[in-house]
Amino acid sequence: MRSRSNSGVRLDYYQRIVHRLIMSHQEPVTGLFPASNINSHAWIRDNVYCILAVWGLSMAYKKIADQDEDRAKCYELEQSCVKLMRGLLMAMMNQKDKVERFKMTQNPLDSLHAKYSSKNGQPVVGDGEWGHLQIDAVSLYLLILAQMTASGLQIVFSLDEVSFIQNLVFYIESAYCIPDYGIWERGDKTNHGEPELNASSIGMAKAALEAMNELDLFGARGGPASVIHVLADEAHKCQAVLQSMLPRESNSKELDSGLLCVIGFPAFAADDPQLIRNTKDAILSRLQGKYGCKRFLRDGYRTPKEDPSRLYYERWELRMFENIECEWPLFYCYLILFHAFQNDKLAVKEYADRLERIMVRADDGTLLIPESYAVPHNLVSNEYQHPGSQRREVVGRCPFLWGQSLFILGRLLQEGFLAVGELDPLNRRLGAQKKPDVVVQVVIIAEDNEIRDKLTEHDLHVQTIAEVAPIEVQPARVLSHLYTYLGRNRKLGLTGRKSRDVGILSTSKLYSLKDRIFAFTPQFVDLSRFYIASDNELMIDILKGEINFLKSAWDLLGRPLVTLVLRKIHLGRLNNICMFSLIWFMLF
């Protein structure tokens, strides 16, 4: 038998750690991870983060799998990922009726549950007994599902499951206008149970929408029926709101260390490099401490001043938590990954050293990530007077599997077992790089031969709708109607997307449906929708604005194609023809 290489020996070490600290807690029936040995609840968010280390280790083994033993370990790790992701999928599919209702009502009581029983995947608390509406959790699941599928894992097995995931896309697509309870499950900082718009939820939803767009859930063996479709305008609305909010997390939380997962791994949701730097610097300057980062200012969770018998606090009472907020080593793990993806080795080493100093060493020498550090009761007054001067003690779970998983991922990156591209096969990390200038293509088509001949008299040579065959030209409302067929499934009782407005990003490309090719005119020129389209001068002004918007917002493959149909109502007077001549020469 051949001897193990140094890299193989080191990976075996990480495999033993992952198996002992993470995989040993995975339920054999559902594949879910309980919160602890005494709490069988399985949170969607925590479970997805827990499995990332397993996924990363499987890809590391795949690269050195020159022995049967390595290939077996790689397969075992991959199947552990598949089992977890499918366990969460089955738990959510059991609540398919809630997905269907939420698309209509957007009521927090109709949202998917944030946690399930790790024993059987069933709900563990009632609809109104927990802040279940956590769009970031469902979005994180979809994002990692897309990344794992792109890496070669087969997680989705049937078209019924494809339909459900398509409906999950519709579930999160309006995240930019849906207040939720956020990454810390509390909504407003006072914990009164009031949801609010959270930048972390919007950013994660934006990342999930972009990752799922045009993704074949069956991988290389799929076909058109297994492809997920996303309206590009919905993702851009999330981006616009996210950029307007950063570096702020929400109205009540001001700043939140949870934004590190939005500006860096795994979401990479922000496209503006300066905004990314500003957000990171704001977090480090206001929330970073010796033992990690605070979640947000005046966070009373697990502090010595917290009253376990109280659920809510008045806003003025939060001042007693100032300067004694718990510090979470978890965020050092995020910072290590953030700088690893930017190839900043000095910063990676700095935070790795900081993290190692505050980790708990087990009896066998294994380094464990604790959940958080709190100021001891007897040192609170000193901490008030001199913030950051007192030693802190571990509170909460140890190891904290969410943080432990990210720590192992960081180690695999630092030691060269993984490349950043393997953790991001969809290349989301490249979103902040400078993009080439966008050239917007505008096509003007005549409604019939009469209009074509009139335009020819003014030296404008166009084709008619009939002459551009086999391409069929339809109004935007037809595209909106076609999208309602996506995700329809009678067996699951899912009706697909509700017919809503369609933006310029979605109508600026060609669509293939079976053997037919469609081009769609923008919604603002639809006379049957609104009378404003009959005002030619206003319509041209709107068109100019939409073209400028396309130049700045287009991030899909190819060039945007704006299709305009000239009708008789547009050519009622000669000056209208001159006006269209003017715009023709202006555009081209």
UniProtKB/TrEMBL annotation:
Q: Which GO terms describe its molecular function?
A: calmodulin binding; kinase activity
Q: Residue ranges of the GH15-like domain? A: 8-520
Instruction: Output one GO BP term.
Output: glycogen metabolic process
Tell me any Pfam family this protein matches. Answer: Glyco_hydro_15
Signal peptide annotation: none
- Keyword Kinase assigned: yes
**InterPro entries attached here?**
6-hairpin_glycosidase_sf, 6hp_glycosidase-like_sf, GH15-like, PHK_A/B_su
Instruction: Just give the chief location class.
Output: membrane
**UniProt subcellular location:** Cell membrane
Q: SUPFAM superfamilies from the entry?
A: Six-hairpin glycosidases (SSF48208)
Q: Which residues form a coiled coil?
A: none
Q: Which top-rank group of organisms is this from?
A: Eukaryota
Give an example GO cellular component term for this record.
Answer: phosphorylase kinase complex
Question: What's its membrane topology?
Answer: Lipid-anchor
This protein's record includes keyword Kinase: yes
PANTHER family per UniProt: PHOSPHORYLASE B KINASE REGULATORY SUBUNIT, PHOSPHORYLASE B KINASE REGULATORY SUBUNIT ALPHA-RELATED
Function of this protein?
A: Phosphorylase b kinase catalyzes the phosphorylation of serine in certain substrates, including troponin I. The alpha chain may bind calmodulin.
Please report which protein family the annotation says this sequence is part of: Belongs to the phosphorylase b kinase regulatory chain family.
Q: What is this protein called?
A: Phosphorylase b kinase regulatory subunit
Which species is listed as the source?
Bactrocera latifrons
Gene name of the record = CG7766_2
